[in-house]
Design brief:
Elements lengths: L5 E5 L4 H13 L2 E8 L18 H14 L2 E6 L1 H17 L6 H20 L4 E3 L4 E6 L2 E6 L16 H5 L1 E2 L7 H10 L3 H4 L15 H8 L1 H6 L3 E5 L4 E5 L22 E6 L4 E5 L6 E11 L9 E6 L7 E8 L2 E10 L7 E6 L2 E9 L6
Parallel strand pairs: 1-2, 1-4, 2-3, 4-7, 8-11
Antiparallel strand pairs: 5-6, 8-9, 10-11, 12-15, 12-17, 13-14, 13-16, 14-15, 16-17
Helix pairs in contact: 1-2, 1-6, 3-4
Length: about 375
């Protein structure tokens, strides 16, 4: 009989989720480990050996760890949900001239729903993951805070979780450092987990060739996008490209032209298949728009709020003022910010806490 009840733990086969499961098991929870199968890797079409969080080796690593510690393990097949939502969004976002972050979408809108649904069916208290983040209840709200290990903090990717999601979620690693997690794995007899390399690739593109993936998924669309224009911010034609989806804001390398000075992608115009190039200083922006916002620490925005905004995972953040305007969040930075890429996530922080977040949109109110 468990002391604390039954908990469903997402196990990718890596050291973080394995140690999270082990911690909860030792604390007296009845742990059920679950590894999600998201993708048929033969569909990727790439030549690189499959690696990552959801491949067969990782599933076996998760199962072996669970069996060795004496708790249950199962595989949850979410290939249908994943393919319909994540892959469709991935291709449509690039075709819309935006740069998607499929891992954020998958974590918060696919995996959590699947995990909580299975947890409910199995009479579990909730779910737990190996994310480096913390969650607490304050003023009647469930609030995510940064993980103690600032180099591994993953609060940025969790902005999409609802209050209901957070109320049934545990993050056992939030108060620990990565080095301590590795030490715990070694001390518990799993040195191979501590030494296991981390994968930063998109799971359905194991060869890291997203251009090839897009061409294979939408061959007709990408044939039509070939031979688009590269233009300067003043409108001068600088050359041609083979499709605007193959570029992202802030990109410098791989532009295919040489003009005697460094140029960067400053804008992508899908309607005309045009990529705009400019100087580094022309990347600087003072205003950003964010669509599909989700708020966690507050139920919504009333008036203005002073926050720190991260526009990418490794971003240190920039002070800004946010307010709702026509269903989107208007972000006014206190200092210029470079490389704002539509489609990526913007996350708002109040100190260590996540206020909320959303997807970076194009600047026009009608975009």
């Amino acid at each position: 009989m468990s002391r604390h009840g039954r908990i469903l733990v997402a196990m990718s086969g890596g050291v973080d989720s394995s140690v999270a499961a082990m911690m909860l098991h030792e604390e007296g929870y009845e742990v059920i480990g679950v590894t999600m199968k998201t993708w048929d890797y033969a569909q990727s079409g790439g030549g690189k050996r499959v690696t990552g969080c959801c491949d067969l080796d990782s599933i076996n690593d998760a199962r072996n760890m669970a069996v060795s510690r004496g708790f249950h393990h199962m595989i949850l097949d979410i290939r249908s949900e994943f393919g319909d939502a994540i892959i469709r969004d991935f291709t449509s976002e690039y075709l819309a001239g935006r740069t998607p972050n499929p891992c954020v979408l998958c974590n918060t809108f696919i995996k959590w729903e699947a995990l909580l649904d299975r947890a409910e069916k199995m009479d579990c208290l909730g779910i737990a993951t190996g994310h480096y983040a913390r969650v607490r209840e304050a003023n009647g709200r469930h609030v995510i805070s940064r993980g103690v290990d600032g180099t591994k903090d993953q609060s940025y990717v969790l902005w999409g979780l609802s209050q209901e999601d957070l109320g049934r979620t545990m993050f056992p690693l939030g108060g620990l450092t990565k080095e301590r997690i590795k030490e715990m794995a070694r001390e518990s007899g799993f040195p191979e987990l501590a030494a296991k390399s981390e994968s930063y690739e998109i799971c359905f593109i194991p060869d890291n060739d997203y251009r090839g993936f897009l061409k294979r998924k939408e061959p007709e669309a990408f044939r039509e996008l070939s031979r688009g224009k590269l233009v300067s911010t003043s409108g001068t034609t600088l050359g041609e490209h083979d499709g605007y989806p193959f570029f992202t804001i802030g990109q410098r390398k791989g532009l295919g032209i040489a003009v005697g000075e460094p140029l960067y992608v400053t804008d992508i115009l899908p309607d005309t298949n045009t990529v705009v190039l400019g100087r580094k200083d022309e990347l600087q922006k003072m205003v950003m728009w964010v669509r599909r916002p989700n708020f966690q620490k507050v139920p919504g925005l009333e008036g203005e709020m002073e926050v720190t905004v991260k526009i990418r995972y490794k971003d240190k953040g920039t002070p800004a003022t946010i307010a709702m305007e026509d269903g989107r969040v208007k972000v006014e930075f206190h200092t210029p910010v470079a490389g704002i890429a539509p489609g990526q996530s913007a996350v708002f922080y109040d100190g260590e806490d996540v206020v909320g977040g959303g997807f970076i949109d194009r600047g026009s109110p009608n975009a």
